[in-house]
Design brief:
By secondary structure, this protein is mainly beta. It has one helix and nine strands; from the N terminus they run βββββββββα. Strands 1, 2, 3, 4, 5, 6 and 7 form a seven-stranded antiparallel β-sheet that branches. The radius of gyration is 15 Å and the shape is globular.
Length: 134
């Protein structure tokens, strides 16, 4: 189910890049980190940085490794991911979902709500600065 509320900065969510993106842009579902705060004037938009399990070749200043601790739900089961800050993008909240863990016996859905550390968010923001040349 798509998000209706802008997640907190540093939240890991899943973004559907399948619609209207063209390679070499991101073109599949993948985890992303929310890097924008919520702005009342653009409540339906969110700036994110994609994560990948593939080691960049070559590793550039706009890449950094991120240890997320416990794996996300399948198929994103790696605990170490690479930030691809050169692919920072602003997307509609309709593209974003929380990682789905399953259901309680009552039928209530369970989501993986995970926020990275302030230090990791600062590292990602630094990578974005490198990617944008600022």
């Amino acid at each position: 189910m798509a998000l209706h509320i802008h997640p907190a900065q540093g939240t890991i969510v899943i973004c559907d890049f399948n619609r209207s993106f063209i390679p070499p842009e991101m073109v599949k579902r993948r985890p992303v980190v929310v890097i924008s705060p919520r702005f009342r004037e653009r409540a339906d938009l969110c700036t994110v940085v994609p994560l990948s399990t593939s080691i960049p070749d070559p590793i550039m200043p706009y890449h950094c490794e991120l240890d997320i601790g416990t794996p996300l739900p399948e198929p994103f089961i790696e605990t170490r991911m690479w930030v691809k800050a050169d692919l920072v993008v602003t997307v509609a909240l309709q593209r974003l979902i929380m990682p789905f863990l399953g259901k309680e016996p009552s039928g209530k859905r369970i989501y993986d709500t995970r926020i990275i550390t302030p230090d990791d968010l600062a590292r990602i923001q630094n990578c974005v600065r490198h990617a944008l040349g600022i």
